[in-house]
Amino acid sequence: MYQYIYAAAIIIGVLVTIAFLIMRVLRGGIGAMFIKAGASICFIGTAFSAFAYNGEDMEYGILVIMGLIFGLLGDVWLDMKYVYKQHNHIYTYAGIVCFIANHIFYIPAVAFKYGEGNFEWWYAVINIIASVIFATVTLLLEKPMGVKYGRFKKILFVYGVFLACTMFTAIFGIFYNGFSTDLLMLSIASVLFTLSDLVLSNIYFKDGGNTKTNVVINHLLYYAAQFTFASTLLLK
Hints:
Layout: H1 2-26, H2 29-54, H3 58-83, H4 88-112, H5 121-140, H6 142-145, H7 153-177, H8 181-205, H9 212-231
Helix pairs in contact: 1-2, 1-9, 2-3, 2-9, 3-4, 4-7, 5-7, 7-8, 8-9
């Protein structure tokens, strides 16, 4: 039964995401925010149904689901910046903090897939160094990329470290421990997430970057990432 609920959650999630993008592009406003929240609820529903169908890896399942819940909260806060524009910086901060929490749960979840006893301390050191370099380079490219991070520079650096750490933990895991479907899916999801945020930085911090094309690309990448993270709960 749960496999059918999982399939239904995926299908409904795709349809709601399309509806959200149409609403965002054509009208925006509070209606688009509620539809976006609905799309995000669908990736949480996908995770719960996949988790119920699998019935294994309790710790991993809880970590991923908690990450997705904070993703939903981040989605709502970030969209509120468009509804209540006079407080847009407050909602932007709140959204970024939620996504930092999202990755705080994702990172140990990905490491969990290394397998018991296969995680070495120096894996973490390499991942952290690579993540700090990634976040630093991103900030150094502010002017060449034509973006202005302004008051958000510090918190974006912190977020960039956690975002990159999720990605590098997954990708490096394949080299550390060998190929596995779990780590491949997590690598794909984390890369999609990173690409989504690179597009989002143009939308938020680049003059003229808030285009319909960028909005569509950003959300397609983002929801593909979150639904992929949720779908890893199917794997035994």
